[in-house]
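User: tokens in, sequence out, please.
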């Protein structure tokens, strides 16, 4: 058993989902079966979709605490080729503030509450209990790694974990809600349908759309995956009867954009969900 695999299994045992990194601190790329979103996931490896690939595909989304997966033949080969071990902070319930130079460290020591710290090559990781949106370059020399992101495992660190403070959450807020522009208008053709409508009243569909909007709005992490799965659920229930209109679809896209999804990501997720269901 390789040293990297032993580390990964130790992390998994305490609820920290690991993944292997190849040269350049990069995750392993998608396999041929998953290339270009063929498996239903995103080409950019941000959303695993319904993928059941046994290999460590899809970057951060491959991270797992399942020891059987981590020890499977495809993963054992990856661990042998790996140069480092990473983990998904959001999956472990934490946020990593990556401080990459002396200036960033000086800022943190005068601005952020003390918490667990881990030395890095050029600075430190400050780790807080709680999950939030990830973002790079939130200020000079500072990245925030939590949901839909990975961080290199450099050891358990020192100090006690403290709760994720508002000052860290505020780092990813680019503009106040008061001046945020309205979501971009979306025009997406409704499904042609043709099947017999199973909905006895319009209220059934409206309630379903409202529940889908709420599911997206309440997502605190893994927004990409939540949007895809919500679109998939809506289409599996309402996609074959012709009841969905442009207005219904626009409501879903608007909810997704309010959580930070781009129009392109919305369209990709909708298209992938339709393809998965054969619509």
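Assistant: Sequence out:
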């Amino acid at each position: 058993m390789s040293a990297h695999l032993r580390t990964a299994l130790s992390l998994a045992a305490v609820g920290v989902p690991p993944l292997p990194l190849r040269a350049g601190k990069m995750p392993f790329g998608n396999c041929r079966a998953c290339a270009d979103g063929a498996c239903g996931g995103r080409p950019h490896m941000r959303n695993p979709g319904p993928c059941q690939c046994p290999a460590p595909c899809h970057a951060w989304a491959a991270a797992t605490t399942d020891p059987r997966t981590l020890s499977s033949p495809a993963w054992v080969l990856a661990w042998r080729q790996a140069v480092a071990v990473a983990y998904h902070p959001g999956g472990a319930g934490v946020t990593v503030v990556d401080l990459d130079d002396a200036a960033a460290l000086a800022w943190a020591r005068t601005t952020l509450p003390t918490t667990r710290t881990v030395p890095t090559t050029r600075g430190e990781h400050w780790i807080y209990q709680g999950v939030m949106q990830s973002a790079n370059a939130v200020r000079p020399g500072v990245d925030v790694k939590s949901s839909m992101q990975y961080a290199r495992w450099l050891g358990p660190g020192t100090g006690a974990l403290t709760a994720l403070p508002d000052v860290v959450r505020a780092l990813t807020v680019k503009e106040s809600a008061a001046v945020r522009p309205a979501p971009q208008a979306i025009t997406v053709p409704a499904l042609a349908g043709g099947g017999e409508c199973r909905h006895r009243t319009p209220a059934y569909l409206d309630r379903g759309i409202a529940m889908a909007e709420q599911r997206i709005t309440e997502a605190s992490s893994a927004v990409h995956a939540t949007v895809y799965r919500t679109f998939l659920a809506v289409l599996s229930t309402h996609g074959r009867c012709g009841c969905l209109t442009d207005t219904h679809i626009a409501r879903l896209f608007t909810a997704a954009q309010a959580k930070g999804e781009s129009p392109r990501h919305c369209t990709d997720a909708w298209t992938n969900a339709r393809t998965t269901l054969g619509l």
